[in-house]
Fold this sequence. Notes:
By secondary structure, the protein is of the alpha/beta class. Helix 3 crosses helix 4 (192-204) and helix 3 crosses helix 8. The chain has helices at 40-46, 98-101, 151-167, 192-204, 218-226, 253-260, 285-293, 306-328; strands at residues 4-10, 14-21, 29-37, 62-63, 67-75, 86-89, 92-93, 114-116, 120-121, 129-131, 136-139, 184-188, 207-212, 230-233, 243-248, 263-271, 297-300, 331-335, 352-356. 25% of the residues lie in helices and 27% in strands. It folds into two domains: 4-147 and 331-356, Quinone Oxidoreductase, Chain A, domain 1 (Alpha-Beta Complex), CATH 3.90.180.10; 156-300, 3-Layer(aba) Sandwich (Rossmann fold), CATH 3.40.50. The strands form four sheets. Strands 3, 5, 6, 10, 11, 18 and 19 form a seven-stranded mixed sheet that branches. The longest helix has 23 residues, at 306-328.
Amino acid sequence: MTGVNAITTKAPSGGVEYRKVDIEESGPLELSPIYTGICGTDKGMATGRLDFAYNPDGQDFIVMGHESICTVKSADSGTGFHPGDLVVPVVRRPGGCINCLAGRQDNCSDGDKHEAGITGKNGFMRETFYDVPEYLVRIKDSALREVGVLTEPLKNVVKVFEVVETVSRRSIYTSRDSTYSGKKAYVVGTGAEGFLFAMMASEYGFDTRILNRHPVEENRLKICDAFGLTFTDYSTGSIDESVDLLIDTSGDPGTFLNFMRKMNYNSIGIMFGTNGKAPAAELTGSDIDRIVERNITLAGSVDAAKIHYEKAVSYLSRWNSVNASALASLITSKRDPSETSLFTERDPNSIKTVIKWT
Ligand code: BGC
Ligand code: ZN
Ligand code: ZN
């Protein structure tokens, strides 16, 4: 492929450029992104804060982008795909370990995998690229042409809830009526990932609170309203209830410990957000006492498998039919690929910024 417009960075040192690239690539399917989303990982790469990012072999740059919704531009016969089909490509590509061989590269056991747009594989922020059917998730619901770009961040959420279901089996975790009714879920962080976690917790039936250490604007409050979430600015007022499910998207040790100290008996704490440069915080003896005495489960979760992408697509269809405008308002702006300053900008009103390619 020669002369394709792409957004690139040099990993791990950073910087962002929109320019023409020449990449040797082929495959049975040629794809064109409609939208690609920008997340914290992209911003971390752009500013040189993501130490684990690296360029593909033989390149001194990497094409960015792992969140996308694409159309099939051309497809070899026998692939089962046709021009115009909507697809979401999978981020993580397997290495040779037992989990990777079983399609669970999200649980890779030796780190020998690649992630499109992050680690050693060119991403999706380019006019066109090639891929294979195995790593494509079909979007049959044409109403998801725009919000389908949320499939990738939502797949992380679907996996986390699978982790919750798995570890919750160590005790009776549900309420007396067998549902999650009355159980309290706290989601720390009001970015797109935070909202998707909170929407899923509410979907499961948890009494769900989404929190940040500052107030939020009207659009976020409206989304809370539409999906039955309560927003709390935890910089004012203390939290005195017990939390059954804590999901952290901040990656900040002090924040995590603060909420961990509110965790209930048999509760589950999920660490999802990462921030390698966050200041340290102290884990005390009484913290360990609490974790032990209350049978608390703390778990980390990264990425997700193709099955989780497929479930994410069903949830998006459902939420889109329940409240299309609230779901769409998670996408706060659609921008041109040339606007590379988006990767370094901090706009408190933005939830998900996407780049529009076609
Ligand atoms: C992506 C994951 C990926 C992770 C790497 C996230 O933004 O959604 O798929 O594994 O970045 O840290
Ligand atoms: Zn991401
Ligand atoms: Zn592996």
